[in-house]
Amino acid sequence: MIAFPNIKINLGLSITEKRPDGYHNLETVFYPVALEDALEIRTSPGTDRKFTLYQHGMEIAGKPEDNLVVKAYLLMDKEFHLPPVEIHLYKHIPSGAGLGGGSSDAAFMLKLLNNHYQLGVSEEQLEVYAATLGADCAFFIKNRPTFAEGIGNIFSPVDLSLSGYQIMIIKPDVFVSTREAFANIRPHHPEYPVKEVIRRPVAEWKDTLINDFEASVFPQHPIIGDIKKELYHHGAIYASMSGSGSSVFGLFAPDALLPEIDWGTDTFCFTGTLK
Ligand SMILES: C[C@@](CO)(OP(=O)(O)O)[C@H](O)COP(=O)(O)OP(=O)(O)OC[C@H]1O[C@@H](n2ccc(N)nc2=O)[C@H](O)[C@@H]1O
Ligand SMILES: Nc1ncnc2c1ncn2[C@@H]1O[C@H](COP(=O)(O)OP(=O)(O)O)[C@@H](O)[C@H]1O
């Protein structure tokens, strides 16, 4: 059985408080975008190994047991005593991009196992499992526009459709650690709450829908800020870094002719249309 884990982008990201447990409370809107990995599971009988991971496409740092798809499998195996599986993961989503690729793979693994082995786990319970694998992982269970608060794990649906808008996502060859990006932030309550701004037309988002990580990440990695400027320069209606970076997305009008920009060979570039 095969699934196609997609990414999310963050529309606004306010970091409001540092919590006693070291994590931060935040407010953001997650929006799904169809930049996808491919994830396949096959039962592999007659083997002692619980799992074998075959990776294709972009490399991911770390051992197989560190991969979030394996962690998701082991979590479900503990609960449901699953048969051994072969896992094929084709990575197309860049890592360390603020696009939630690893979290999405993990959430889709939970859904795949639930469907393939007919485990009968509810979406709500899958969200509970997903939340133990990563702060934004549970979003990918329902995978629809969502307002997130708490540490990014308390969800409410958002009545927002960007259907038809074109998107360009650019990720330079720069790694931003989420932990470090948080460490450089002074939390505060936003002048324009994310939830209110996204009710306004996209054309009004430019100076009001803010990702707080930009202020901590751009000075350290000016190239990321330059990409955002470039996207505006070429006609984006709204542009922002996603999550803690290092990718930047630009939204363009449905009928706009997307610019052809030479970002250089080490830069990842995706264009698509939002659903
Ligand atoms: C902050 C967001 C916004 O979308 O960044 P991106 O990952 O998308 O860039 C996500 O919620 C991140 O989710 P995720 O990447 O799953 O975070 P985790 O692995 O759980 O946490 C990585 C590290 O970030 C810090 N962290 C994370 C989430 C949070 N609300 N407060 C924090 O302080 C902690 O130091 C933690 O050890
Ligand atoms: N299946 C996976 N895909 C991508 N990264 C993974 C995966 N499993 C574990 N990781 C680890 O998770 C970290 C964060 O990856 P990812 O979720 O893609 O980035 P981000 O949170 O910035 O969107 C990486 O350092 C990577 O080593």
From TrEMBL:
<dbReference type="InterPro" id="IPR013750">
    <property type="entry name" value="GHMP_kinase_C_dom"/>
</dbReference>
<keyword id="KW-0414">Isoprene biosynthesis</keyword>
<keyword id="KW-0067">ATP-binding</keyword>
<dbReference type="Pfam" id="PF08544">
    <property type="entry name" value="GHMP_kinases_C"/>
</dbReference>
<keyword id="KW-0547">Nucleotide-binding</keyword>
<feature type="binding site">
    <location>
        <begin position="94"/>
        <end position="104"/>
    </location>
    <ligand>
        <name>ATP</name>
    </ligand>
</feature>
<protein>
    <recommendedName>
        <fullName>4-diphosphocytidyl-2-C-methyl-D-erythritol kinase</fullName>
        <ecNumber>2.7.1.148</ecNumber>
    </recommendedName>
</protein>
<feature type="domain" description="GHMP kinase N-terminal">
    <location>
        <begin position="67"/>
        <end position="141"/>
    </location>
</feature>
<dbReference type="InterPro" id="IPR020568">
    <property type="entry name" value="Ribosomal_Su5_D2-typ_SF"/>
</dbReference>
<dbReference type="Pfam" id="PF00288">
    <property type="entry name" value="GHMP_kinases_N"/>
</dbReference>
<dbReference type="InterPro" id="IPR006204">
    <property type="entry name" value="GHMP_kinase_N_dom"/>
</dbReference>
<feature type="active site">
    <location>
        <position position="8"/>
    </location>
</feature>
<dbReference type="GO" id="GO:0050515">
    <property type="term" value="F:4-(cytidine 5'-diphospho)-2-C-methyl-D-erythritol kinase activity"/>
</dbReference>
<dbReference type="InterPro" id="IPR014721">
    <property type="entry name" value="Ribsml_uS5_D2-typ_fold_subgr"/>
</dbReference>
<comment type="function">
    <text>Catalyzes the phosphorylation of the position 2 hydroxy group of 4-diphosphocytidyl-2C-methyl-D-erythritol.</text>
</comment>
<keyword id="KW-0808">Transferase</keyword>
<keyword id="KW-0418">Kinase</keyword>
<dbReference type="InterPro" id="IPR036554">
    <property type="entry name" value="GHMP_kinase_C_sf"/>
</dbReference>
<comment type="similarity">
    <text>Belongs to the GHMP kinase family. IspE subfamily.</text>
</comment>
<comment type="pathway">
    <text>Isoprenoid biosynthesis; isopentenyl diphosphate biosynthesis via DXP pathway; isopentenyl diphosphate from 1-deoxy-D-xylulose 5-phosphate: step 3/6.</text>
</comment>
<dbReference type="InterPro" id="IPR004424">
    <property type="entry name" value="IspE"/>
</dbReference>
<feature type="domain" description="GHMP kinase C-terminal">
    <location>
        <begin position="213"/>
        <end position="255"/>
    </location>
</feature>
<feature type="active site">
    <location>
        <position position="136"/>
    </location>
</feature>
